[in-house]
Each structure stands twice: as structure tokens, then as C-alpha cells.
């Protein structure tokens, strides 16, 4: 199907999704809004599918996402080819861009030091998206990112996946918090004491508690949402609640006495995976290699 | 208008928006999908407006957002009244929830220490959303959050606004980066050297450069996106690019020699504001007072 798609229409669809409206796409492409509308309609007739939901901003349908991913991969290949031909700087193409999605705890611990090892000659621009794994998958599917660190081993269509290693999480709380809330049976205490979660979708703590209590998770108790990795750790250290913190972030605070480990016999190991487009991009291959090496040093073996 | 809205229909609309589909709302409310659909249609007939875009997930229209905000405020008032009447714990209502939106740099510096000063008796659950100010406004308008730290002084409908203070940003880079990229005229160097921005919408650095150069912003040079406050600072310290870092985060690294201040005569002061619902909630009033006090200690006076 793909090689029969009229590329001008495909690029127009991409512009509409990126700009959010037909009018904005028209002004970005220097054509009239009715030309934009006409091209999208032709593409929909040719593919026999509705490609855009006409919301504000517009959203691609599932079929639309396939075409959008194709459009982004096309733009990428074109850019790489031009860079290899030395056509980059001359016509303002700029450096290679590598959009990637990373979960917050990786970004706060091992991922950024890994990126600083990537040689910057020629320069490579890292465009990081900080996302939980559910949305990461959508970003890969739409082609918004070329690669992602995710906790899901299921490859997105058009992507390869490889295991990076395990992140160890420890259940911790401040000594003051433990003295106030954690004086009885450990499992019941952790089920009822105030809890910190990353956001509404963070189920790590609940899963941990269910493992201790044969199913009860204390869903109705006080729970704070603190949606940054460092803020989460700081909120635990400040005594707002208990929570699961990556061992590399918890260890210094445990040693200095600001955090107590609550269940030393029950660490939680979460596997991380690297997913990336099946695409022959030298810059992406270089980053993938450096990330895999750093993961091997920083994470626990699977 | 509001006091004539049938509350069962209003609550049903809220469930549809929160659950994302009519079917999910039906199962959350223990009624049939056709009952849900019927209630939403009746509410649309009564208000004379389309309230929902039938997308997946559904989205409220602008009129729908007004009703949704009313529904959330209603739920809040009911909850507060029941808590004051001592009906909280008895029927599993749980602690008071305070959803708030905060920009990333505030969350990484002064905001979390402020929250730890709020007495936790009775417990108050902080549900923090980390958002740039554009999306913050949408969260306030939909009633998803009750309050927000934002850089916009324009009050969202139904909200009050007050100034908190100024955050000072310093242009910084690592000494190695400065030796490689910043050896000529400062304004031209900052316009052309690799740059770190928070995300696609972060225009702080570009605005700063335009102020130095009479309008040029070097839009085509290498720019990395690092969407966490601590990661941004770490990426600058690692030499990936220069960037504007809050003074409280930059100062320790300037003192230890890991960062250089690039334009000591041109700090950038960004005002912050507190917006909150016009709603008589004791818990919200308490948090607003503590936040204002902490801002006065941590931020620069306006």
C-alpha cells in the first residue's frame, strides 16, 4: 500500500496532525485551507479509511496513525540521506533529531548520564519525552518518538524490542513517619498508612501491597500524587507517606538515616525494555548501543 | 442556569468524561449504556448545547467544560459538608483530596517543602499535576484541579488569582562547553551554540536570546529537549548545551565550579501566580495560605 500513497498528501496529513488544525497546516504549508482539506479527503478516498477525527485539535484515527508513522519515517530517511550526502548544513537542515520517550525514574537516574556518552560530532539532538509506559506506546505507534525505554516487553508494530535490565525498588519511609504510622503488623500498616504514588496510573505501590496482603490494597486510604521522580523521593523523605523508590535514589538517604527500608526481604524488581523503529538510522543505532551499554552497568541483570 | 440542572444528569456527564466512554460510565454507575446516553441527551436538550464530542475517549465541548466544572465543584462541596458533619470515615468517604497543578521548576524547588508544612490532621491528600501553564489553564477550566501555580496572571473563569513572587533564572553552561562553544561575542555565541529546552513549548531560552540579539533566536541550531527540572540542570552541567536554570538550582553548581554564569548582568525574572477556584473550602484556604507564606520566603518580591 505504502508505495502508492501520494507523498504530498501524506506530508499534508502530517502537517495537519502536527499543527492541530487545517488552517494552521495551510499556513505552515503556504497553501489554502481548502487545498489542505482536499488533499486529506483524497488520501482518505485512496486508502478507503477515515484518517482524521475532526476534533480540535484534530486526532489521527487508528488508520491515520499508520500513515502518520509512515510520514515521519519518510521524513527521517530523507533527512539522514541528505545528511550523508553532506546536504545538511548547506540548506539549513540542521542536526539530526532523535525523539525518544523515557519513564521518569530512568530519566532521573541512569538515562541522562548514558546520553552524555554519545559523541556530539556531528551533533545529535535528543528530544526526550517523559511518559509512563501506556502513553509511550502511543508515541511509538504514531511515530512521535523513534525509540523508548518502557516496562512493556510487547513490541509496538514496526518496532524491535530488547531487554535492558531490572530496576530495583525499595519500600521506604522517613523515621518520623514510621514512628507515627508503622508500629503494628507490617502488611496491615502498609495497607492503611498514607501512601505516595507518582500519578493516577501508578499501580506499583498497590501491586506491592497486594503481594504482602493476599489481595487487599487499602484503596480508600490517604494517597498523595507527586509526579516527578525527585519530588516523589523528597515527599517520602519529608514524611508525607511511604512509597517505592529506586534503590539508587534511596540508598544515600538510607545511609544518612533520612529513610528507613520497610521490607528489606521484599525488594521489587521492574524490567525495562528498549523499543525502537525498524529503521536503518546510524544516529539511532549509535544511541541504542550506548544506552544498552549504560543499562548493563547501571541496572541489574535480567 | 445551574440550579435548574438535574443533578443526576450532571453526575452522569462527569462519569462519562472521567471514564472516557458511555459504556465505562454505565458500568461505573451500575446502569445501562442506553440510560447514560439518554441522560446526556436530556442534559444537552435542557441546556440547548452540545456538551460532549463523541470521540474516543469523549471530550467535553466548551459548554460541556462549564457543566463539568460545576459537577466537580458540587462533588467537592458535598464532600466538605459531609466531612464537617463527621460523615467522612463512617461511610468510606476518605480524606479530603486537593488536586493542584504546578510547573516543573516550582515543584523541584520551593513548592514541595511548602506542602510539607500543611498540618496532616485531618489528612489532606495532595494530587499534584506537573504541567506547563498552557495546559494548567485547561485543567482549571475543566475543574480537574482546584488550584494552580502558573505564570499567567489572567484568571480562568471562576477562579481568583494572586501574585506569588518572581523566580530568577540564570543563563549557565559547563566550563568545558563554554570553552568549546562560547569564545566569541556573547550574544552571537548564545544564538548559535547548542541549547537545552524543557520541551517543544519552552520558549524561555529563545525569548532570552532575542533580548540579547535584537530579535535573532538561532532557531535552526542544535537543541535538546529534557523535560524534567533536575534533568535539565544535569544536562547543562554535563555539557550538552547551555540553558536558563532557576538560581536556587544553579547556585550550588556555580559555587562548586560545575557551572559558569554566562550573562551575570542579565538575570531573567519570571512571575508566578496562584489561581484557585472561588469556593469556600477550608482545606484549600489552608493550603493557599501556606503556599503564599512559603512563596514570600523563597521567591523574589514582585
From TrEMBL, chains A, B:
GO terms for molecular function: DNA binding; DNA-binding transcription factor activity. This is HTH-type transcriptional regulator LysG. Residues 5-61 form the HTH lysR-type domain. Keywords: Activator, DNA-binding, Repressor, Transcription, Transcription regulation. Belongs to the LysR transcriptional regulatory family. PROSITE patterns: HTH_LYSR. InterPro entries: ArgP (IPR017685), LTTR (IPR050176), LysR_HTH_N (IPR000847), LysR_subst-bd (IPR005119), WH-like_DNA-bd_sf (IPR036388), WH_DNA-bd_sf (IPR036390).
Amino acid at each position: 500500500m505504502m508505495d502508492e500513497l501520494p507523498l504530498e498528501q501524506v506530508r499534508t496529513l502530517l502537517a495537519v496532525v502536527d499543527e492541530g488544525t487545517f488552517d494552521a497546516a495551510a499556513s505552515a504549508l503556504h497553501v489554502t485551507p481548502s487545498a489542505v482539506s482536499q488533499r486529506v479527503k483524497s488520501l482518505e478516498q485512496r486508502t478507503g479509511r477515515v484518517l482524521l477525527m475532526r476534533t480540535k485539535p484534530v486526532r489521527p484515527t487508528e488508520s491515520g496513525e499508520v500513515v502518520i508513522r509512515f510520514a515521519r519515517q519518510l521524513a527521517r530517511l530523507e533527512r539522514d540521506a541528505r545528511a550523508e550526502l553532506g546536504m545538511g548544513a548547506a540548506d539549513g537542515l540542521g542536526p539530526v533529531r532523535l525523539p525518544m520517550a523515557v519513564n521518569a525514574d530512568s530519566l532521573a537516574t541512569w538515562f541522562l548520564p548514558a546520553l552524555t556518552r554519545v559523541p556530539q560530532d556531528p551533533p545529535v539532538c535528543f528530544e526526550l519525552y517523559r511518559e509512563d509506559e501506556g502513553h509511550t506506546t502511543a508515541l511509538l505507534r504514531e511515530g512521535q518518538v523513534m525509540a523508548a525505554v518502557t516496562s512493556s516487553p510487547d513490541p509496538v508494530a514496526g518496532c524491535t524490542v530488547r531487554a535492558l535490565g531490572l530496576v530495583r525498588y525499595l519500600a521506604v519511609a522517613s523515621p518520623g513517619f514510621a514512628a507515627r504510622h508503622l508500629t503494628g503488623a507490617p502488611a496491615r500498616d502498609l495497607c492503611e498508612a498514607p501512601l505516595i504514588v507518582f500519578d493516577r496510573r501508578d499501580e506499583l505501590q498497590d501491586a506491592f501491597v497486594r503481594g504482602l496482603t493476599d489481595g487487599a490494597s487499602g484503596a480508600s486510604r490517604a494517597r498523595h500524587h507527586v509526579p516527578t521522580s525527585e519530588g516523589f523521593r523528597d515527599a517520602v523523605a519529608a514524611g508525607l507517606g511511604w512509597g517505592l523508590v529506586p534503590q539508587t535514589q534511596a540508598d544515600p538517604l538510607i545511609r544518612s538515616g533520612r529513610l528507613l527500608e520497610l521490607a528489606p526481604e521484599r525488594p521489587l524488581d521492574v524490567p525495562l525494555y528498549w523499543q525502537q523503529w525498524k529503521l536503518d538510522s546510524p544516529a539511532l543505532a549509535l544511541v541504542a548501543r550506548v544506552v544498552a551499554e549504560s543499562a548493563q552497568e547501571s541496572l541489574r541483570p535480567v
